[in-house]
Write a structure and sequence with these properties.
elongated, alpha/beta, 5-stranded mixed sheet, ph1033 like fold, 2 domains, 7-stranded mixed sheet
């Protein structure tokens, strides 16, 4: 079974997918490809370069760099979460460690990657698997749920057996990890709903936001699942027609075009497409060229649930039980 790695990248300006690479920081250390540096040597170099670093951070940073430079092998699988889109990208390591001098000020430490699948919704995987790849470390080996992720790449998705926790992998439940777990929980509950219940939930969420909204009849709805408006009678424009797709797959332009076709002309009706996944390039282009269309992704839907949770009907709060808590706002210091 190939080794599976997880890596977090905090530089949204880098085009990891388009340019085919993964990267880490620590720019101030210079070109590490030009020298042979073992873990003890890295600790000494880190301490000299970052004299203000906390003592506990030095061995952590040295461990991440050692894994990236020496332990990752060509052919290994890498999982790169996209925090903004709430998706996962899967690839294989395609080259050795290299220092990109042209990017000396921004993540110059890189490895080439051949991307296999990108934009995969997190809801595709079990909560415990998502928890493991939510590690506070920049780079880590995926151990307990490697079989689940590999099964997905093989086309046979399903939760794999959980091994006993590795003490070295246990991480403090920081604010970031708690937030990520809560979002994954909400997404998992929505995925588990049947289509009609999902439509009813979307209508309830719109009411929590401030609209008058109701799901349409289960049949003969013409592709429109929810009708919403601002006025109590639902007769003053604009009338909002919502199509709901309880799927984590990519919604294409033809499906979005069907919703557009259900809208009356003259700007009196607006269309909103809601899905638990994402949209294709042609679907996004339709949204950009039309003022009366909005596409809501799975990540955006979860954002709306958390933002308007307190205003949801009690029955939906019982379906998605959440409570505001304080969490430790401290992460393992890394570059």
């Amino acid at each position: 079974m190939p080794t599976v790695w997880g890596i977090h990248n905090d530089q949204p300006g880098l085009d990891l997918i388009g340019a085919g690479f993964i990267s880490i920081g620590w720019e101030e250390l210079g070109d590490l490809s030009a020298r042979v540096v073992d873990r003890s040597g890295l600790k000494a170099l880190i301490s000299a370069t970052y004299p203000d670093a906390k003592p506990g951070a030095v061995p952590v940073w040295a461990g991440v760099l050692t894994r990236f430079i020496a332990e990752m092998q060509i052919g290994d699988i890498v999982i790169s979460p996209d925090k903004a889109a709430r998706t996962l990208n899967f690839g294989t390591i395609a080259g050795p460690f290299e220092y990109n001098a042209a990017s000396a000020d921004l993540h110059p430490n890189r490895r080439a990657v051949s991307w296999l699948q990108t934009g995969v919704p997190r809801a595709t995987f079990s909560p415990s698997a998502l928890h493991e790849i939510g590690s506070a470390l920049t780079l880590f080996r995926v151990k307990r749920h490697a079989a689940e992720f590999l099964a997905f790449l093989d086309g046979t998705p399903g939760p794999g057996p959980e091994a006993d926790p590795d003490p070295e992998d246990e991480a403090e439940p920081t604010a970031t990890r708690v937030d990520s777990y809560a979002r994954d929980f909400v997404a998992a509950v929505l995925v588990a709903m049947d289509p009609y219940r999902f439509e009813a939930f979307v209508a309830a969420l719109l009411r929590a936001i401030g609209y008058r909204a109701a799901a349409t009849q289960a049949s003969g709805d013409g592709g429109v699942d929810v009708i919403a408006s601002r006025d109590p009678l639902g007769i003053e424009p604009p009338i909002i027609k919502v199509q709901c797709k309880r799927t984590t797959s990519v919604i294409g332009g033809p499906e979005v075009q069907k919703l557009i076709g259900a809208l009356a002309g003259g700007g009196d009706e607006l269309g909103v497409f809601v899905t638990l996944g994402n949209y294709s390039t042609d679907a996004v282009h339709l949204e950009r060229t039309r003022q009366n269309l909005r596409l809501v992704t799975g990540a955006q839907l979860v954002d709306l649930v958390l933002e308007h949770y307190e205003a949801l009907d009690p029955m939906w709060k019982r379906t998605i039980p959440l409570r505001r808590v304080y969490a430790v706002d401290r992460e393992t210091p890394e570059s």
